[in-house]
Amino acid sequence: MNPVSEIHSSTAGLSNADILKLRHQKAQHSNILDLHNEINTPYNSPHLNLGSRNIDIDVPRSSDTFPSLETKVAGMQKVISFPANTSQLIDNHSEELFPGLGDCNTKTISTPVWRANQPNLNGHGHSQLKSSNDNSIFPNQNGVSNKSMSNSAPKTLPPSLAGRIQAPMIILQSNDVLPRNHLKKPIPEILKDINRKLRTNLSMMIGEGGVLQFRESSNQKEAVKQQAIKELGTLIGSKKSITLPIPRSIRAYIIGKQGSTIKALQESTGARIQLQKMDENSVPVQDDDEMIDVTIEGNSVAIQLADIEVNKIVRERSVNIQTKLRNIPVEFYPFISGKENSTVNAIERAYNVQIRIPSHSIWASHPPPQEPHPGQIPKFSLPTGEDLITLVGDRGNIQAARTEIEQIAQNLSQELTIHQFIVNNSQHQFVIGKQGVSPDYFFAETGCGIILPNDSNEDSITLVGRRDDIETAIEYAIDLASSMNQSIIDISKLYRNASGSSRMHARNITTYLHDRNEIEKICSRYKIHIATPLDSDGASPWEVFYRSENSKIATKAHSEIGSIILAHPPSRMVTIPIDPFFYDYLKREVKPGVRRDFGVHMVIPEKHSKITDVLLVYEGKSEIDSEYQIPREKPDNELIKLFEMGLTDAEQFILGILKKQAQLSETSIDVPRIFHEKLRRYIQKEQKERAAGEIPARVFAAGTRLTLRGPEPIVTSLSIKVRAFVDQAIEDEKERDFTLKFNFPQKFANQLIGKAGSHIKDLKEKFDVEININDGIVELKGPKAKSEAAKSHINSLGRQWADEVTYVLKIDPCFHREIIGTQGNQINRLQTRYKVQIHFPRSAKPIKDDILNGDNVSDADRRVLHTQEPDEVIIKGPKKGADETREEILSLFQYFRDNSHTATVSVQVGQVPSLIGQRGSGIEEIRQISTAKIEVPNVKDIQDTSTRVEVQIKGTKSSVALAKKLIEEKKTLFDNTVIKTLEISKEHHRALIGPQGSILRDIILKAGGSDDRRELRRTVQFPKSDSEENIIKIEGHLEVVDKIIAAMQTIVQDRESRVIDSIEVPIENHRSLIGHNGQIKRDLEQTFNVTLEIPRQGSGLTTIKINGLPPNVEKAKAHILDLISPRKSKSS
């Protein structure tokens, strides 16, 4: 190749003046060819800003370099370097030096684009873009067809303009322009009209073959120039469409947030841009090698402009691409990663890419590979789902890294083998997992990958590695599995004599303890592991694993487990066979009530569990909502009867609920997949409107078959509705191309769209139509009837918003939170009821302040809210609703202002429980009496009971005063309360308490104490009867406490000073001392303050004992003798 031709091949697209200049430089610097292979010098091309686009015009300068064809293919740049010390350049714009050279018809050099390295089906380096009339158009980076450029030399060009001519803004082939008879005016007149309207200077030149070049040379803004070109295309451009393939990962960037980017593109270019729809239910694929089509429709000018903008986005977003390897077996992943990721790190450094290899533990979704028969090659598993090796980086570098990884995989397929061996499945966790090592560590130690089975009943472990490493890996795995000691707990043996199957009861206990998380707690507390295998016949013996150093702790764990098992005999549990359909309903609606009302805990199986029966376990009613403690004491016969009664009642209650349900039925309906999402929303809406207590039908989808299962009436009703819905959807689909346009006030557009598009999205779902809003025009696309209904609704919204008024209320900020309500409930109620927007200043809003901002806020509203004063509340909406809202808010404001009196009472932390009372009864009583709002602080975390806290009171002036008075009375009483102890021998305790507490009650009342039962129990507290303590605790006001102590001491002194005397009384006189129902005896004891012990009738004894103080005993004795002396004389 001669030097001239070489320079010509490297400067395609330059003007004749630029080429001549380059030749001049070539003559001055003969060493330019020797520098052709230098690399790593950046190539910079200046940008000439034309219209709204940046068109790259490659003008070589002394510092410029050019990429060769070979380096383009390799994805790197090998460049030509010009010497930096070049002499002054010749002015290629000089009319003297270069008079009228004109334009050249060679192709322009294009910078590499995202699909430069992807050959199409025809073997070309670029894709073909097909127009609607089957003309091939391939846009270069400037959006101009290569085909048109090949014939674009102008017929005539004034010599004086040749050096200054601008690149055209747009180039049209003859078939890109409407026929003359379809134009309203000749093109020159159209240009004049546009220039006059927009004050631009748009001109046209005709090249060979009728190619039209349009330039703009005014000083107008770029947006105006772009508008001029856009209007030109509308008037003269023929209608076409092209299809442009792009990476699927770029789709989101072209659409933009809420469609903002694609809307802007369509508005600025005038073209209609459509992207291939993605299945809503499909998993997003982040792989840039997967291509989708972009369809651009419109006039020829709009298509060129849109094509440029789309390619610009693709180039910007395709600097780094992502691809996934689907042909690498998952067994190879650890070997490709290498020990401590050494191999993959080396590949990343060598090719400057990022590589993500999924974790070794990815076998939960599919079975491990099988060991091959002798002499056969092992079969490895290709990845499924998202378990793929991912590469991110430059396209060329990724291709090189991919080749390297595939070569490694090819070698591994020849080197690796598969081996399986048996280890008890309960010991697998000590090989890989929390109790063992990680798969990465195992690979680093042995050079083999390890795969555990996903079936808990499977014992085999699979190794993948080189034959020389397999034996070492087996030994290492067995050492890990054997590192724990093992013992057995057989629950069924503890209940082998119980009625029923002991193994089934063992299964019930195991299931229950797992559900209550008790087994996990024991394992954590004692540093052991318990394996609890289950099968269809019951539970196998538990296997307890522990390390040698924890053997003593494991023995304690054995003892505790045994206590728990003995505390749960078969009488404490019962199973109920229930159809799995009812599981969700029982868990959601029935389980809490059964626990609360019957004290029975329900264990409901998971959906795919092997156990299908619902297990009932009696736990007992609990008044305090606290964590249930698993019992560890063997129940007695009385408790067992309580178990059986509670379980029977709970079982009858559950079965009674299920008997009320209709018989279960099932039906299937064929539904095209395109309607599944709409149908899902429809069914959800229908199920929400069911009657209270009605169990909803369950819906399953498999392919195009939709299955409904549930109570027969519900399934029948729902299936009829579903079939009608599908039939209507099929009919509607036939009218999807129907379009309806109408005017809508632009000022309400934001309100119609809603916050983040929420309102218009709701309208689309409600009416099942597509809705687009542009410059005051609403376009509806969908079935005619639904479009008409949507139009009617949108117009009614417009009329409603036109009737809107705005009120600004001045309200003291201290009342804002109360008016808003908890989580905005009061304001939300007003907004929903009156269809208005209510805006409080931001400082008044709770954390989730979005709930108070209306979804539809216009720009004008935002400006108002931006300047909103701290004491201003803004109401906006229909006049009637706004008036009602204003009245309610002002009424609330007045109410809160009238009830805004506050007071505080300082109390000790120790008083708070007594102030609140049992279950809040104490404080609730004060609230009801005073009608004030009282807030008692939380004192759980305060250790010092003498610390003082503030009780807040709020309400009307009178209610606050009354509540404060009541609390201060309690406070004064508490502050004057003392606690004293009195040591009295236990032999006197019963005498101090008296029959049914009568003596103690008299002591407290006479001392000035309260007659309230709870206060009586709190005032005097005796030690428990089984305790050896003698200390009595007295609590209350100091004066009351001292009187109680004095009274008790007097009683004790009296008892200790008492004497016992006896008197002989004939048996026939005993009845006269007892009286009817013991009345005479009680009168004597009360009169003389003594105790009489009269022998039982028939005992034959005559001695009566008198117990009391000596004077009282003498008086009682004398009185008794007087009573019986007349009887003696009579008998004698």
TrEMBL record:
Residues 120-157 are annotated as: Disordered. InterPro entries: KH_dom (IPR004087), KH_dom_type_1 (IPR004088), KH_dom_type_1_sf (IPR036612), SCP160-like_KH (IPR054548). Keywords: Repeat, RNA-binding. The keyword Cell membrane does not apply. GO terms for molecular function: mRNA binding. Residues 238-315, 319-410, 415-482, 736-799, 803-894, 899-972, 976-1053, 1057-1125 form the K Homology domain. GO terms for cellular component: cytoplasm. Residues 128-154 have a biased composition (Polar residues). PANTHER family: DODECA-SATELLITE-BINDING PROTEIN 1, ISOFORM A, SCP160. This is K Homology domain-containing protein. It comes from Erysiphe pulchra.
